[in-house]
Design goal:
The complex is a heterodimer. In chain A, 13% of the residues lie in helices and 46% in strands. Chain A contains four helices and 17 strands. Chain A is mainly beta. By secondary structure, chain B is α/β, with parallel strands linked by helices. Helix content of chain B is 36%, strand content 29%. In chain B, strand 9, helix 6 and strand 10 form a beta-alpha-beta unit. Chain B is globular. Classes of the chains: A mainly beta, B alpha/beta. Chains A and B meet through helix 2 and helix 3 of A and helix 2, strand 7 and helix 3 of B.
C-alpha cells in the first residue's frame, strides 16, 4: 500500500527550514501497536472525548458526543495534508448550537506513520471548543478543514507532547462574517513538527488568531508556516508566537498576513519572539506582510534574544539558583502566548506542561 | 559579621575599588556616603556577586566564610540581602510567585521546610501592610508599572519577607517622596535594627539618615574609605560637601 512518498524539498522557499528526512523511513515502518496507556494524557475537561491510536478510532475509550467518525469531506493540494485521506472525524454544529463542553481529541501513535483528516463545520452562531493532543511516537499527519458560518466561534488548543517522531498539521480555514477562530499551540514534547496554516477571513469583520509556544531541545525542530489572508473588510488577525530553543535545536516561524485590495479597515498584528537558551541553538523568524488595501492597521514585531542578564542576577540575589531563575524567566517568556487559551483548565494544563518542559518548580 | 579587607575590584577592566576595608558587627548600622563614581554601587554589586564585577585582590568574609567564593544565590541563602538602586522589571513573573520561590529556595538551601502557599501569603501580607504597599500590587509582574517609590517600597517588602542577617541597601532613598522615605526608614528600623542583624546603607544624601540613624558613617572616594566617624560625620558632609572631605 505504500507509494513513493513525494515530499517538498528545502529548495522550496516555504520549506527551507524544514527537515523531513525522517519521514520516508517512518512511512515504511509499521506501528508497534499493543495496548496504550492513555490515563495520564486526558486533560479531563468533562466534555466529549475521542481516542485515536495510530490514526484508528477507539470507540471503547471514546464518548464522541456530536462528533462523527467516518469518511471526511476535506481535500487539499498541500504536500503533507493531501496524504490525510479516508476516514477521520467531523464536527458539524447547526444554527446557534454549542458543543457540550470542551471536546478532547487524543492522538496516540506507537511508531510508523498515520494520516487522519478532520472537518469542523460550524453553522451560524454555533460555538465549539476543542483540545487536540498528540502523544506517543511515530509520524502523525493531520489535515483539518474548518468552515465557520457567520458569527460562529471556534476555540482550539493543540498540545504536541509526543516523545519522539514527527507531527505535521495542516489547517485550512474559511472564516465568515463576524466569525472567530482562535488556535493556540504548545510544542513541548520531543518530536519534530511542521505546522501549516492557511486561514482566510472571508466575511466582513472576521477574526483569526494563531499562536502559541514552541519549545525545542537536543536536535529537535519545530517549523511553522502560517498564512492569514484578509479577503474582506473589517477583519482582525493576531499571531503571537514564542519560540524557545536549547542546545542544537531550531525553531522556525514564518508568519504571513495577506490583505487583498478590498479588505479595508483590516487590523493585523504579529508578535514573533525567539529565545535562545544556548548560543548553539537557532530561532528563525520570518514575519511577512503583503498588503494591497490602503486603510490597514498592521503591526509586527520580531525579536530573538537571550535571557536578560540583569533579571537573572536580580532573581539570584533573592536566592534563586541559576537553573530555577532561568526556568522562571523562560516560563514568563512563553506564558503570554498560552494565556490566550480561553478554557481555564486547558490553559492551566498547558502552562504546567510548558513549565515541566522548562524545568524548575511550577 | 562582615569583614572586608583591602578589596580591589574592576569593571570591564577599569579599577573601581582600590583597597577598601570595612568591618561591620552584628547590631550595627553603617552608612557609606560618597560622590558619584566613588565606587558605592560597585561595592554593593561585588558583595552581591554580580557577573562582570571582578575582584582582583583582597577578601570579604561573611560570618567567617569567604563571601566572594559563593554564587549570588548562595550568598542570599547565607543571609545577605541586596537592595537595588534600580530594581529590575520582569514582565510575566508575578511578584508573589517569585518571592515564594526565592524564599523557599533559601529555606531549602538552609535545610528548613518550605513555606506553604497559605503561610507565605499571610507572611507577605503582614510585610506589605507594614510598608504601606497594597498586597494587590504584588500579584502583578515584578516591578512592571511600579513608580520609583513603589519599587523601593517593594524592595523593603522583599527584605521583610526574606528577613536577612545583613542588608546592603544601595541608594534605597533615591526617588522617594517624604512619605515613602519615612515608610522605608521605618521598614529598615523595624526589620533590621536587631542585635543579630546589620545594615550597610549606601547613600548620597543625609536625609535617609534622619530616619535610620547609623552607628558609623564612612566616606568613600576613589575606591577606598577615606574617613570614618559617627553620625555627626554625615551632617558635616551635608554642610561641607564631598570635595573638602576627599581632599
Amino acid at each position: 500500500m505504500t507509494q513513493a512518498l513525494a515530499l517538498p524539498s528545502t529548495r522550496d522557499e516555504d520549506w527551507r527550514w524544514s527537515n523531513l528526512s525522517a519521514l520516508p523511513a517512518l512511512a515504511e515502518q509499521a506501528p508497534q501497536g499493543g495496548p496504550v496507556d492513555v490515563d495520564g494524557l486526558w486533560l479531563g475537561c468533562g466534555g466529549p472525548r475521542l481516542l485515536f491510536v495510530d490514526g484508528a478510532y477507539v470507540p471503547a475509550a471514546s464518548m464522541p458526543g456530536p462528533i462523527l467518525v467516518g469518511p471526511v469531506d476535506a481535500r487539499t493540494d498541500h504536500p503533507l495534508g493531501r496524504l490525510a485521506t479516508g476516514e477521520g472525524w467531523t464536527l458539524t454544529l447547526g444554527f446557534e448550537h454549542a458543543a457540550p463542553g470542551t471536546i478532547e481529541i487524543l492522538h496516540v501513535s506507537t511508531g510508523g506513520a498515520n494520516h487522519l483528516p478532520a472537518r469542523i463545520a460550524l453553522g451560524e452562531g454555533a460555538q465549539a471548543s476543542i483540545v487536540e493532543s498528540f502523544a506517543g511516537e511515530g509520524w502523525a499527519n493531520r489535515l483539518t478543514r474548518i468552515d465557520l458560518a457567520p458569527e460562529a466561534r471556534l476555540m482550539r488548543a493543540i498540545r504536541l507532547v509526543q516523545r519522539g517522531g514527527f507531527v505535521s498539521l495542516r489547517d485550512e480555514a474559511a472564516i465568515n462574517a463576524g466569525a472567530s477562530l482562535v488556535t493556540t499551540l504548545l510544542g513541548a514534547g520531543g518530536a519534530d513538527s511542521r505546522i501549516d496554516v492557511l486561514a482566510s477571513l472571508d466575511g466582513v469583520g472576521a477574526f483569526a488568531e494563531y499562536g502559541g509556544a514552541l519549545l525545542a531541545n537536543g536536535t529537535q525542530r519545530h517549523d511553522a508556516a502560517v498564512v492569514l489572508r484578509h479577503a474582506q473588510p473589517g477583519g482582525t488577525s493576531r499571531q503571537l508566537w514564542r519560540a524557545v530553543a536549547d542546545e542544537q535545536a531550531a525553531v522556525s516561524l514564518a508568519a504571513r498576513v495577506e490583505v487583498v485590495r478590498d479588505a479595508q479597515r483590516t487590523d493585523a498584528e504579529q508578535s514573533l519572539r525567539g529565545l535562545l537558551l544556548k548560543r548553539s541553538a537557532t530561532v528563525n523568524l520570518k514575519p511577512e506582510l503583503e498588503i494591497y488595501a490602503d486603510d490597514v492597521k498592521a503591526a509586527h514585531g520580531a525579536t530573538v534574544g537571550e535571557l536578560d542578564a540583569q533579571a537573572l542576577f536580580y532573581l539570584a540575589s533573592r536566592g534563586l539558583p541559576p537553573e530555577q531563575a532561568r526556568a522562571l524567566l523562560t516560563r514568563a517568556f512563553v506564558s503570554d502566548a498560552l494565556m490566550r487559551i480561553g478554557d481555564e483548565q486547558v490553559r492551566d494544563a498547558l502552562l504546567a506542561e510548558a513549565g515541566a518542559w522548562l524545568g524548575g518548580t511550577a | 559579621m562582615l569583614k572586608i579587607d583591602n578589596l580591589h575590584a574592576t569593571v570591564a577592566g577599569n579599577p573601581i575599588l582600590k583597597g577598601l576595608s570595612l568591618s561591620i558587627n552584628a547590631g550595627e548600622i553603617h552608612a557609606i556616603m560618597g560622590p558619584n563614581g566613588a565606587g558605592k554601587s560597585t561595592l554593593s554589586y561585588v558583595l552581591g556577586g554580580r557577573p562582570g564585577y571582578e575582584v582582583t585582590d583582597g577578601s570579604a568574609l561573611f560570618e567567617g566564610e569567604d563571601l566572594l567564593a559563593l554564587e549570588p544565590h548562595q550568598r542570599a541563602a547565607r543571609g545577605l540581602f541586596l537592595g537595588f538602586q534600580y530594581p529590575v522589571e520582569i514582565p510575566g513573573v508575578s511578584y508573589l510567585q517569585f518571592l515564594r520561590e526565592a524564599l523557599n529556595a533559601q529555606r531549602t538551601a538552609r535545610g528548613e521546610e518550605p513555606l506553604s502557599g497559605g503561610a507565605f501569603i499571610k507572611h507577605a501580607r503582614v510585610q506589605a501592610d507594614a510598608l504601606g504597599l497594597d498586597i494587590e500590587m504584588l500579584k502583578r509582574p515584578v516591578n512592571v508599572g511600579f513608580s520609583g517609590g513603589e519599587k523601593k517600597r517593594a524592595e523593603m517588602v522583599q527584605m521583610g519577607i526574606i528577613d536577612p542577617k545583613l542588608a546592603i541597601l544601595d541608594e534605597t532613598d533615591s526617588g522617594l517622596d517624604i512619605d515613602a522615605l519615612r515608610h522605608v526608614g521605618d521598614g529598615i528600623n523595624r526589620i533590621m535594627r536587631k542585635p543579630d542583624k546589620a545594615v550597610l546603607l549606601i547613600t548620597h544624601y543625609q536625609r535617609l539618615l534622619d530616619y535610620v540613624r547609623p552607628d558609623f558613617v564612612h566616606v568613600l572616594a576613589d575606591g577606598r574609605i577615606v574617613r570614618s566617624g559617627g553620625p555627626e560625620l554625615a551632617l558635616e558632609l551635608e554642610r561641607e560637601g564631598y570635595g573638602a572631605m576627599a581632599a
